[in-house]
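[Q] Does anyone have a clean structure-token version of this?
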Amino acid sequence: MLETRDISVSYGKHRALHGVSLKVAPGEIVVILGANGAGKSTLLKAIAGICEGQVRGQIAMQGEPLLGLPPHKVVERGVALVPEGRGIFGDLSVRDNLMLGANPDRAREDAGANFDRLTRLFPKLAERAGQVARTMSGGEQQMVAIGRAMMSNPVILMLDEPSLGLSPLLSKELFQNLKAVREAGLGILLVEQNARLSLGIADRGYLLENGEILREDRAEVLRNDPAVQAAYLGGAAAAAPAAAVARPAASPAARAAPALAADTPAPTALPARVRPRAQPSASRPAAQVAGLDIDALVARAATRATPPPAATAFTARPAMPTPRSDALGDMLRGIEKAAQQARQRRSPGTGAALAPLRPSIRDRRRGDAPAHTAPPPAPPSAPPPAPHNPRPGGKVEIWRRRPGSTQFDRMEN
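[A] Here you go.
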């Protein structure tokens, strides 16, 4: 049996729990009900040895003290916690996650038997043994988290908000599985926001408010208590419509109507000369209200002669002369003329002619550039005249032109 006495937890100067005492026996489900911030999760963490606050009091499992032990020693004593948010290893398979729960010494020898018992209790885990855990649904992942805790061969199983994030259908399936776990002989300490489902499967319950236990009773008694219904089951919201339907004539407005009718004085009748005239409820046309004949106004506007718009004479504006300056063109033509004159004269010594001047872009646009696409080939130069040798039997010089060139080479006799 798990038993706590006068458990108090403080986070600095803030006290989260004060004097909490409870008992959980094997084979029963005990639920802890409370609002957010009441200290439910803090109580489970204090029992499991993972509370970061300062814990005082007594925690014992089958008479052995647990307060002050590290978490793995608490598991060795037979207490396992399924934390809020499941806390499974998503990249591992279902089998690997379950076998990690069999790491304590008390569960290693019976790991195979515990796995077979778990798969008989949850057949879906046997079907998904090789599946990666993160690819499973939320309800299936919660089943893996519970199975991993059960693989440690615990005596008391603690669950913190197991239905968090699950759909109503999966939540019902989860609570049916918890009933099967209880029938296997394990004690369950359950912290759950869904009070209706948790009280439906629990044997006993505790009401925790502001860090203190307010009440302890059987689950059936708590479920039928009007105060518990109003606080946790929404009973106040359901009772108000039922009372209104049962007694519709007892409303405050109905009860006050006769008194108001008796106290209200009768209206004074007005003289005939100032009595207001009753206004007819039928609608009247706008023409009658304005006193104008709308149809006549429309017809008069249609027959009124409207002078045509005067034709507008458009006069074409003379083109503005574009100022042109031929100074640059004259300069370029002068340069071209000088180049042509120089081209007619050969260079002394080489006989090469000057290349034609490339036309400018402006000359090309105006069309007055010299009409040529490539420089004309230079005429072959004549060989230098042979020196006159008046003496008979004199020596004759022979010159030969280079192929593809205007140069000559002297040949030896």
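[Q] Thanks! Anything notable?
[A] The domain at 2-236 is CATH 3.40.50.300 (Rossmann fold).
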